[in-house]
Amino acid sequence: MQIEVISSVNEAQADRFAHRTVIVIDVLRATSTIVAALEAGAAGIMPVETVLEARALQCSGHLLAGERFCRKIPGFDLGNSPEEFTADLVRGQRIVLTTTNGTRALHKAMRADYVLAGCLNNAAACAQSAAELRRDIVLLCAGSHNEFALEDGLCAGLIIGELQGISPSAVEMNDLGAAMLGLFKSSDGKLRELLLGSTTGRRLMKNGSVRDVDHCCRVSVSSIVPRLQGDMLA
Fold first, then answer.
1. What's the predicted TM-score (pTM) here?
2. What is the DSSP letter of 80?
3. Is 82 within 8 Å of 221 (Cβ atoms)?
4. Contacts from 193-197 at CB under 8 Å and sequence distance 24+?
5. What tens digit of pLDDT does each residue of 57-73 get?
6. Which Gene3D superfamilies does the record cross-reference, listed alphabetically (predicted)?
7. Theoretical Cys-Cys bridge with 142: which of 40, 101, 123, 228, CB 3.0 to 4.6 Å?
């Protein structure tokens, strides 16, 4: 099994995804929020790139959710905090989601055979699902403002470690993948501290969203593996 890690959405090129499974990672917070929404019973998540695209779908009865610069978009039903997506609000609902980086990364990945949404919360289940699809794997870190994000790299390293434990054959990875695997292995007991100290973590702390970081740093607590089917994650 070949595994390639891409450092940010800005480095992603669609031709690198053909005939592969792509796991899009945006720990703080898009893919963590998508997992939380589906866990709360949402019928599906439609990722869109722009606020205008999201507003164009408002009349269809979908809930609108999203953020720009870690803040809820004015007029939207929900932001991008996983704790907002409670069963009372989202059960049975289709949600249109737009975020600064995560939904862009999902769109970049659409040329792949399969697209999954991964985060620390569902890392083990995501690795298992990806292995069962029997394709080489790309771990696309969404990043932050077109740059590498520490939390996404840590998650990529965790997923690689899980894949090594699952795969009966040798797992080969690019240099960034090897570095992220080493980074995660050295982070034992320090994940929360590392996420709070990351660029996005510090921004969320300033916004009073420490609870989001606490939610997103939990490892392999969910069996939900969002998978893109057409234009919807379910």
1. 0.97
2. S
3. no
4. 194/150, 194/151, 194/154, 195/27, 195/28, 195/150, 195/151, 195/154, 197/150
5. 887 779 999 999 899 99
6. ComB-like (3.90.1560.10)
7. 101
